[in-house]
Every structure is written in structure tokens, then in C-alpha cells.
Amino acid sequence: MTSTIQTLPTEVVYLITAGEVIDSFAAVVRELVENSLDAGATRIVISLWPQHWKVRVADNGCGMNWDDLQQAVIAHSTSKIYVSEDLWKITSLGFRGEALHSLATLADLEILSRPMGEYEGWQVFYNDAGEIIEQKVAAIAPGTVVTVNNLFANCPARRQGLPNSNQQMKAVQLIIQQIALCHPQITFQVWQNDKQWFTICPAASVGKLIPQILTQIKPGDLKEEVLEIPDSESKITLVIGLPDRCHRHRPDWVKIAINGRMIKCPELEQTIFSVFHKTLPRDRYPVCFLHLTVSPDQINWNRNPSKTEIYLHEVEYWQEKVTEAINQSIRISEANIKESIHTSRVSDLLKVAESKGSYNFKSTTENNQNQSYLTAVAQVNKMYIVAEHPGGIWLIEQHIAHERVLYERLCDNWKILPVETPIILYQLSPNQVEQLQRINLDIEPFGEQLWAVRNIPEMLKNREDIAEALLELSWGGDLQTAQVALACRSAIRNGTPMTLPEMQQLLNDWQNTRNPRTCPHGRPIYLSLEESSLSRFFRRHWVIGKSHGI
Ligand code: ADP
Ligand code: MG
User: What is the pLDDT of residue 462?
Assistant: First the structure.
């Protein structure tokens, strides 16, 4: 019997980012679980005894034969790459042949393994150098059980440098969750001190797995999209929390994985945050999991030893694709129009109150040719548009839907027009003057406490309250804040009657916005009552005879 595990040639070792990979409980778990995944396991059982500095990972993977067990723990021994060119063809999680060796030097290491198709397995104990000190035949199921005991016993400084065991267990949980997100088809069973701690069940897709991890989220709050890149092996798997349904108060749930491993990629994170900008309430952050599958020659894993940072080729290309994919998921389309609504949202929506005023709704019709999935049926309380589609009924709040339309138009073409008669403003502070200059308005002193503004944003052109609107814009914030304020001010007020054609026009314009779900302040714009929930509510499945007591 021979082994596929070999010691890497020295020149390859030099190419690999060296460094201690085992610096915590979580790192032990990560390395062992990654080995199990590389071995093709579908079921991984992780047991932890933090007080004893002991970890065990058992899997149903391909196992190791007798020769493999001789070789596996020697420094730089791996079955995953052999020569330096292989560094550009990495399809496994491991490749450095360092983890088991480091574990042997830092702890007592024991491996039990039985390869698929053999009748018996072996139990092997290793010394600090990775050599076998004891071996026995063992009756176990095919697969591998690695036990690490007395971790860091020979370097007390390392133990002392670590946070308390509660925090370490939190880190372990986090790492297992991250791995599960990247491998949703695997079962993870986790034990702590001989008691079952948590389990992550396999799911058909990562979107279906996330509610096990973010328990407050319901499957309907998420949207999953897989974007295959034509003529390549690449694809993007994206799960977003719909901005009208869920968001976080910390920026802690934008996660990015590449080829099966969670990584840090500040460039892509930034892209995600900016695509969600102005779709969420103030100080709220998106829920987003992005998994890129790219050809292995596009990634250099040797940026840091824990492989959490990488060099990714053509990062701008991926930024563009990710933006497209997120926009696609947020948009309203035939595919996602059938969404069920959770009743708690209804009361949230009904809390929204708006001051009344008289406004003329004029539509600027550019998007007429675009398809509409919704038909305006009626206006309710001069505030909501009732719309129907084959799958149900929607209520759309007129003011914020219009606000979204105007806001996107403003962003797309922010035009400043000169005015014949300057607009005179009184008693501005130096800050206000500066602010108006910052958004590119021409403003100059016009006498004592008076200023003249000689150009205005196009949207204010035919309005009587231009001075008021300019004052509002002078109260600070960047251009974007000014655009939000302007859109809000210009949008049709609640309380304004609308005709059917006007409502239909607004619906068409709104459906074609990039972010139709929320207004630029992050408030939800529509409430959907789908046929399936209506029929459930009206008990349409009841047999007539039974419900009539016959
Ligand atoms: P690497 O994962 O970088 O190859 P490791 O030190 O983690 O290095 O593992 C060394 C080798 O031991 C692996 O290449 C693999 O062949 C074998 N091995 C480790 N863990 C397992 C396992 N759970 N099942 C099967 N083989 C394993
Ligand atoms: Mg490994």
C-alpha cells in the first residue's frame, strides 16, 4: 500500500506563506474541519472540552491508510499539491501540509482512521516531531477521528495570552458557522463537555441555511441569486436580506467567501455597503452573504497564513458583477413578485404617518416602454395605491414610492439650472452658505444679511417654495443627503388625490427603480398580500360542507 501524501520540495515551501496557523481553539477546529471537508466528508462531529484543552473532530471522509498515517504528520506533508505550479490549481482548502505537524508539536495528537473500502482502521499516537510512538488496529467506521489533547501544554505563555474559555467557544461557534455557510450541504454536530451544544443541518442552498444561524430571520426575508458567468467556471452565489425586511444595527453581517472559504475582501465589502446605501434606515447595515466561485488560477492564497486574506485578480470586474447581482435581487420582477408578507410588518407599515399638503403630481414619463407587473386599481385614503397582479394585491404608499423615483432620477442627473430672477435668502450662517456652495449653487452676498442664489436644482424649477427648499438644503450633509431631502420635498404628498392613469404612471416608474423596496430613508414602500396568504386567511381550503356544519 502506498500513500499519496508527500513532503513538499523545499522550493515550494519557500513560496508558501509561513507562520503559525494554530494559535487558538478556533484555529484547531478550522484546520481539522477543513481537512475533513477536503476528505469529502458529509458529516462532521466536533467535540470540545475547553477545560482539558481538548478537541476532537470525527468525519465520514475518505480516511487514511497505513502509509498515509506514517506520512501525514511530517512537516510540509500533503496530498493536495506536489509541485510549485500546483499553487495555481488549488481546489482544496488545505495545501501547506502544516496543520497536523503543528498540532503534533503543540499538543498530544492521536489519529484514528479507516479508509473507505478497507476492513479495519488504525489508531496512531504521534510525538512532537510527528513520528509514530504507538499504533494499534482499531475497529471504526470508515472515516477519520483526530483528537488533540493538552493543547499548548508546552507553551504556557500561549495559553495565558488567550481569552477566557467562553470567548474562545464563541470564536469556535463563529468559525463553524462560517464554514457551514460556505458548505451548506454538510451536517455539523457540535458537542461541548460531552453535551450536545449545537447542530447545523444540511440545506439545499446557503439561503435556506442562514435562518439556522440568524435565528431571527425568516426564509422570506432573504433573496438568493446564483449568477453563472458565461464562458467560464465562475459563478456568484448571493444571499441578501431584503432591505424592507431585515437589517442589522452593526456592520457585522456582510460576509464574503471565495471557493469554499470565508475571506476578508475590503474592496468587495465596500461595494456591498455602497449598493445598499440609501435603501436602509439610518445607521442600519445590510445582511449579505456573497460566495464567489472562480477558477483557482485567479486566486493567490498566500497573502497571510490563515488564508483569510487573498489576492484576487480583476477585483473591479467582480465589484461590477456583485453590484449587478445585488441590484437584480432587490428589483421587483416577475420572479420575485410573489412574496409572502409577515403580519408584524402590517402594523409597522400602518404606523407611518405623513403630514398633508397640496401637491400636484406630474409624471415625467421616460420609462413608459418598461414592463409593468402591477395594475393600479384604486386609491385609498388619498395615501395608498391599491394595485393588483395575478398573484395578489399590493398596497403602495404614494409619497414614498414617488420619493424613491425622484431620488434615483436626481442621482442619475443632478442638474443645476440658472434662474432669471435670483432667489433671495435671509440670515444665513457661514455654514449654510458653504453648504449651498458645496452642492454647486452660485451664492453671493446681496446686502445686509441677504444672499442671492443664481442657480437652482432643476427639480425646483416650477415651484413656489424654492427659497424654503434652498434653506432646507443649506442645513448640511453631503450632496446625497441634499438629494434625499429634495426628493422628499418634491414627492407627491399623502393626502393628494390621484387619478388612475397618474397612479399607473407612478407604479410603472417605481417598479423600474433600482431599489424599489425602501425609500431613501429606509422605510418600506409596499405591503404585499399574496393570493396564497389570502386564501389561507379566508380558509379557502375548507370543504364547503364541513365549514357550514353539514
Ligand atoms: P494539508 O491539509 O495542508 O494537506 P494537513 O497537515 O492538514 O495538511 O494534513 C496533511 C495530510 O493529511 C492531508 O494532505 C491529507 O492527505 C491527510 N489528512 C488530514 N486530515 C485528514 C482527514 N480528516 N481525512 C483524510 N485525510 C486527512
Ligand atoms: Mg489541512
Answer: 81
